[in-house]
Amino acid sequence: MHTTGSAVNKAAERSSELYSRALAVSPGGVHSPVRAFGQTGGSPLFIRSAEGSTLTDVDGNTYTDFCMAFGPLILGHNDPAVAAAAHAALDDGWSYGTAEPWSTELAELTRAGIPWAEKIRFVNSGTEAVMSALRLARAVTGRNRILKFAGCYHGHTDAMLIEAGSGLAGTASSAGITPGVAVDTLVAPLNDVDELHTAFDLYGHELAAAIIEPMPANHGLLPQTGEFLGELASLCRQHGTQLIFDEVISGFRTGFGGCAERFTIEPDIVTWGKIIGGGFPVGAYAGRAELMQHIAPEGDVYQAGTLSANPVAMRAGLATLLQLQDGSVYNYLEQLGVQLERGIAGIDGINITRVDSVFWLWPGSSVSGEAPPRSPACFDNTVTERFPDFYSHLLEAGIYLPPSPWEACFIAAAHQPEDMEKLVAAIGSF
Fold this sequence. Notes:
Oligomer: single chain
CATH class of the largest domain: Alpha Beta
Largest sheet: 7 strands, mixed
Mean pLDDT: 92
CATH superfamily of the largest domain: Type I PLP-dependent aspartate aminotransferase-like (Major domain)
Strand content: 15-25%
Radius of gyration: 21 Å
Number of domains: 2
Low-confidence stretches: 1-9
């Protein structure tokens, strides 16, 4: 039953029972930390099925879903074409451990829309893609150090679990990371050109790569400006540093070509995930042929994976990207986004940042600096203080958001205008 500050919606007895069982056999009862509802004041819902824009939990409660599996389901749950492709893959055998045709078709489709990404290597997650891209950058430059930016999330590879410390020096944000890894990862603030120049003035000759989410979406939605990203690209060229765009979230989401297309910036390496696999486990990294030829077996940068380019994910990815090619899906998503943004604009105490079909809501926080916010430094503590009640209220209204005050939300092609109206009405009654 619902109580203030609790994220248990209606009758959730079966979810509660499953959570108790899960706690006995899994750390925190979950297999990815944010699923534990630790920042909502409640316990997680266990979902049994999904269709279109709707989730159904094990107790039979239904929710309009704006999490969409944290981004990959741009078409919605159980899209018919993607489902048909996945079922066909299962009928034909779901893992071969050999070369197969669909990864080539997906790579050709990707390159046709993003010509500078001449060669692509498929892996199984965004974390794998980032790990491999960093290894490639170090190999081709002969350098060790990496520059990342506070407020960006690049998966859980050791070198990226570093947060800002004193100056540019990074400190580990997880146990189990060696001091040597922390020393080789520098952290600069987002949207600060002066600090960016300082970083390159001091360490540019040592930097193998600078990696950035051009649209950070895990510490709120913090869209970066073309000016800042352009300056980063220029400094990378001047210093022989590889520029890596982490577009695991924004790739194929902010248009087919992602943020690279939006800002007309061609990074040296791009990492993808989520949408490119149609909602199945996938990751990828891509770049110019002359760079990617360093990857084994052509070159001496080793990377491998038993399930890399598995036929289920490749065929689901193809079925997804084929529907995105002509741009009509993006036009529809923008219409829904405009509707949502206009509806929320008139509600006191609730803020929204939106980029295309990605949006972030936060209740009652003052924002320092420019709008939209572009750095974690913009926010005060009210983001987290008010979130449990906000989240619980929306669950009671049948709205499912990511169970964290800092995670972005997603609009899918399966959403309808009435779904936007439902969300606006629920927020308006908070």
